[in-house]
């Protein structure tokens, strides 16, 4: 079973940009939203995705990949400030993500509540948290009929996952932010075992390929050490959670190996991080083998020996700035506000100090602007501050680079790839590079880069598969076997089963529908039987349980003579039986208008043989004789051309001795002669070929002859001989074989002609409307 449908992908954020990730998927009336973040470079309503473009009450589910603000911070606004709750939508994220998301949102509300453009209140945040459904990696979640998903590890940060989504059979892999490199505490992103139809993947680094992990760590620790040696302070802007924990593990190990640094403090300036450390220790089982083995040995890797929290006194930033050399990891990573911004403004004028950008910096933030190393910058208070601090970038960003991303895209093998979460220039280069790679492999993969609010429509034509269960599955089918049963559709999946198994499978029962159709008809019962045999071959005749004369057509439809001028058709409803009943009804209602009926009821001979119980042209086995076949063929032609004459070789030789005849009237085989408008055509009854001097008449007779041969062939014989009804060639072959039998039968016939056809006592007009 094949069908076609369209998947609509609309980016409300992160379309040719980094920040406010929000992807809307619509397919077969189902709507899913992946991620609901804010843009770090903006504040208030300007930071939100373009949420007005969607009726949130129609959303079936929101899936959040990880706790970073650019993927999750708009969730509270959507659940509490839009009409999302008017619908039946649900919110899902992993257990670690929900645990950390709580602390992230508390901090987000705290830092934004003092401003006039705060998006929501602490109460809104608490209400939103209560609506989140936590899930585990590799757990199959059914949202509603037709929608399910499975989370897979994505690396990046604790609890981050990618979602393999199934909407009505269409599979979509949404990666969110992911990392294909195992670091000191996280596993790398998994490759789902199922090939999706669509891959929606981040493109943060475009075609940039970073250095190896060992090289980065060595360059990072060397740079930190050199800044300390020159008497400077080291500022490491990081997010409170995620890569900060990785940097802490690196620094703690490096300090352990260098005793000369033991008197140099390493501060972690984040109260939020202190709260979340408990979460990290709770979800050790989601981390890599290195962390799990250390924890099993009671060596908690997140209890740092050489790292401490900053003093909890007011003005600690200035005290640290005026103190001896130190290293400070301060949030947030984009340096827009908070401790990282305050420390930078204090340390920027001193050339001994050093700033190391360790993650990806979004366009429009201070972290991105400062990488151009301007001579001065504007402080939060509006003053101009000279920049003499050294600026270096060593990216520990837990995003895939080009080498990792391109390899993953190729391994997923999706038909369509949608690039998101990347700046337009880098995204365009990645698209061109991937198109070139797929072209070299001669693979037809479509790569898309939609902008925000630009709806991408992807059409699919897929095969729907039905599983055979129960009795039908007892015997494995062989090639070309035909399996018949009930097709049950449930939640966009299809099951084929025997009707007897329906009760066990669905708690339902089957019933048989008997249909009846009464017909008022002014012809005799025998004439009805004659027409039925002409169309369907032998019919079974007898009495039903109530003693009513009954003929059974094709073993399926009963024709009952209920009253003198009334017939009733009765049958058990099914696709095949309904078809036979329709054709039987059409045949019976046309009997009184049939030219053949006029001819049969006009002849004394025919009138007599219709009153016999058994068909006069039936042999001992009940099969129609060759003469009857010719008779019916002639009647079919009469309905189209008027009178048809029968000729046989002996008659022509006797009647035409010594006389010249037209070439078209001569025949060495039995034939039928059709005359129309002073032209004639002869039909050879053995070869079923048509000869005529009039080409137009010849083609017309050939067309009618093809229909006649197919029509008068016995349907019942076709069934019993295994000839498919749709195989006209087989039916034609069967008719020709019958005509060959005629060659012998016609010479042995007592009168040598078909009385009903060639009699001059009756003539059927061309229009078949009256008899003379």
TrEMBL record:
Q: Per the record, where are the segments of Acidic residues compositional bias? A: 650-660
GO cellular component term of the entry, any:
mRNA cleavage and polyadenylation specificity factor complex
Record key words, sorted: Endonuclease, Hydrolase, mRNA processing, Nuclease, Nucleus
Q: Where in the cell is it found?
A: Nucleus
Q: Where is this region: Disordered?
A: 644-672, 736-772
Q: Which Pfam families did the record assign?
A: Beta-Casp (PF10996), CPSF73-100_C (PF11718), Lactamase_B_6 (PF16661), RMMBL (PF07521)
Identify a single GO molecular function assigned to this protein. 5'-3' RNA exonuclease activity
Q: What is its main location?
A: nucleus
Ranges for domain Metallo-beta-lactamase come to: 19-232
Q: Cite the Pre-mRNA 3'-end-processing endonuclease polyadenylation factor C-term domain residue spans from the record.
A: 479-715
Q: What GO biological process terms does the UniProt entry carry, in alphabetical order?
A: mRNA 3'-end processing by stem-loop binding and cleavage
Q: Which family does it belong to?
A: Belongs to the metallo-beta-lactamase superfamily. RNA-metabolizing metallo-beta-lactamase-like family. CPSF2/YSH1 subfamily.
UniProt-recorded name of the protein = Endoribonuclease YSH1
Task: Record the organism.
Answer: Macrolepiota fuliginosa MF-IS2
């Amino acid at each position: 079973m094949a069908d076609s449908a369209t998947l609509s992908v609309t980016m409300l954020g992160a379309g040719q940009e980094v920040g406010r990730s929000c992807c809307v998927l619509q397919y077969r009336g189902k709507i899913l939203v992946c991620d609901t973040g804010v843009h770090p470079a903006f504040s208030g309503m300007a930071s939100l995705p373009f949420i007005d473009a969607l009726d949130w009450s129609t959303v079936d589910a929101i899936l959040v990949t990880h706790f970073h603000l650019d993927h999750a911070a708009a969730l509270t606004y959507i659940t509490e400030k839009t009409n999302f709750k008017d619908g039946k939508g649900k919110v899902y994220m992993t257990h670690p993500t929900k645990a950390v998301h709580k602390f992230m949102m508390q901090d987000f509300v705290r830092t934004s509540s003092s401003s006039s453009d705060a998006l929501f209140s602490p109460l809104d945040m608490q209400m939103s948290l209560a609506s989140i459904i936590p899930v585990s990696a590799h757990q199959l979640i059914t949202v509603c009929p037709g929608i399910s998903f499975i989370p897979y590890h994505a690396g990046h940060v604790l609890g981050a996952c990618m979602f393999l989504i199934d909407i009505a059979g269409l599979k979509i892999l949404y990666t969110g932010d992911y990392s294909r490199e195992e670091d000191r505490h996280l596993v790398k992103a998994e490759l789902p075992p199922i090939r999706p139809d669509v891959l929606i993947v981040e493109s943060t680094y475009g075609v940039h390929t970073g250095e190896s992990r060992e090289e980065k760590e060595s360059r990072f620790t060397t740079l930190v050490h050199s800044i300390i040696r020159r008497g400077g302070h080291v500022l490491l802007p990081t997010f409170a959670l995620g890569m900060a924990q990785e940097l802490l593990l690196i620094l703690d190990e490096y300090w352990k190996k260098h005793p000369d640094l033991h008197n140099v403090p390493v501060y972690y300036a984040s109260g939020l991080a202190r709260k979340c450390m408990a979460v990290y220790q709770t979800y050790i089982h989601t981390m890599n083998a290195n962390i799990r083995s250390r924890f099993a040995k009671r060596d908690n890797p997140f209890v740092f020996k050489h790292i401490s929290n900053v003093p909890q006194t007011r003005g600690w930033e200035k005290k640290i700035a005026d103190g001896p050399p130190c290293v400070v990891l301060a949030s947030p990573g984009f340096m827009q506000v908070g401790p990282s911004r305050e420390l930078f403004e204090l340390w920027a004028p001193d050339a001994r100090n050093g700033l190391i950008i360790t993650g990806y910096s979004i366009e429009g933030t201070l972290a991105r602007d400062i990488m151009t190393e301007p001579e001065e910058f504007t402080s939060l208070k509006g003053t101009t501050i000279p920049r003499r601090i050294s600026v270096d970038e060593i990216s520990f960003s837990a995003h895939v680079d080009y080498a990792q991303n391109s390899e993953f895209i190729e391994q997923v093998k999706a038909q369509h790839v949608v690039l998101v979460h990347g700046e337009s220039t880098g995204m365009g280069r990645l698209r061109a590079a991937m198109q070139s790679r797929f072209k070299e492999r001669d693979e037809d993969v479509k790569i898309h880069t939609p902008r925000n609010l630009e709806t991408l429509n992807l059409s699919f034509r897929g095969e729907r598969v039905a599983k055979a269960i129960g009795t039908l599955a007892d015997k494995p089918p062989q090639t070309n076997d035909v399996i018949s049963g009930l097709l049950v559709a449930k939640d966009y999946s299809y099951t084929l089963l025997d009707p007897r198994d329906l009760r066990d499978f669905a708690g339902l029962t089957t019933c048989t529908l008997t249909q009846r159709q009464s017909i008022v008809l002014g012809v005799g019962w025998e004439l009805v039987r004659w027409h039925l045999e002409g169309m369907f071959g032998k019919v079974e005749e007898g009495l039903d349980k109530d003693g009513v004369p009954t003929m059974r057509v094709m073993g399926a439809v009963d024709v009952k003579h209920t009253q003198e001028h009334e017939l009733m058709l009765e049958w058990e409803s099914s696709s095949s039986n309904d078809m036979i009943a329709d054709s039987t009804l059409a045949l019976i209602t046309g009997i009184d208008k049939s030219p053949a009926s006029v001819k049969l009821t006009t002849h004394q001979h025919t009138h007599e043989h219709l009153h016999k119980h058994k068909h006069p042209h039936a042999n001992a086995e009940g099969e129609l004789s060759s003469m009857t076949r010719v008779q019916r063929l002639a009647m079919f032609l009469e309905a189209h051309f008027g009178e048809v004459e029968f000729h046989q070789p002996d008659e022509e030789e006797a009647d035409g001795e010594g006389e010249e005849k037209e070439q078209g009237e001569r025949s060495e085989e039995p034939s039928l002669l059709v005359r129309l408008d002073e032209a004639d055509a002869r039909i050879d009854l053995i070869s079923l070929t048509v000869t005529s001097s009039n080409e137009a008449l010849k083609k017309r007779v050939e067309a009618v002859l093809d229909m006649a041969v197919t029509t008068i062939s016995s349907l019942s014989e076709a069934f019993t001989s295994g000839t498919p009804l749709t195989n006209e060639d087989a039916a034609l072959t069967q008719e020709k074989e019958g005509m060959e039998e005629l060659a012998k039968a016609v010479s042995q016939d007592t009168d040598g002609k078909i009385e009903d056809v060639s009699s001059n006592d009756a003539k059927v007009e061309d229009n078949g409307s009256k008899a003379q």
